[in-house]
Amino acid sequence: MSDDKQPGESGQRRGFWAWLWARPKRWFLLGIPAGGFLAFLVGIGFSGGFMTVVEASSTLSFCTSCHEMQAFVYQEYKQTPHYQNASGVRAICSDCHVPHALVPKLWRKFQATYGEIPAHFMGKIDTREKFEAHRAELAQKVWDRMEATDSATCRKCHSYEAMAADKQDRYAQRKHSEEYRKATGATCIDCHKGIAHHLPEKM
Fold first, then answer.
1. What is the average pLDDT across 66-84?
2. Are residues 96 and 153 in contact, defined by beta-carbon separation less than 8 angstroms?
3. Residue 140 lies in a domain
């Protein structure tokens, strides 16, 4: 029976572990493990606080807290089945407008911080006239994002497999069929623009 271990290897291992767990000869070196543990706790606290802020900024109350949302798009959304329906399932702003995976979600938050928040304070769409003038531009940005992700936020709630095709008309059945989707490359938003907000007058 051959032994592949090199001479002295087990001794070197024991020496390493003994060195790792040995009490430091200088008192100030005791701060290294304590500092590491403290950094670990601070990291957990920061991560928890950061994710709490991320989730809080995705609530319906937060999304509709500014004048533009309250006065315009929120009122439109309240008239749709996404807000109120027979089953009592409500899709809020972030369900449609914020990716659900962590990294894309954080990137979307970054875009809002450096794009949409400054526009809010500059009064870009703070009146009905300004909002309508920019509606097509704003809608197109959302549609482009949805097309680029194959309507991933839509499909977080909606599933082709869960659809009762016999309760759909023939037109909807054809559009939802796998054959049609493969042939055309169509995604949800291609047919369902205006599902939660009014369409722009000029598209």
1. 93
2. yes
3. yes
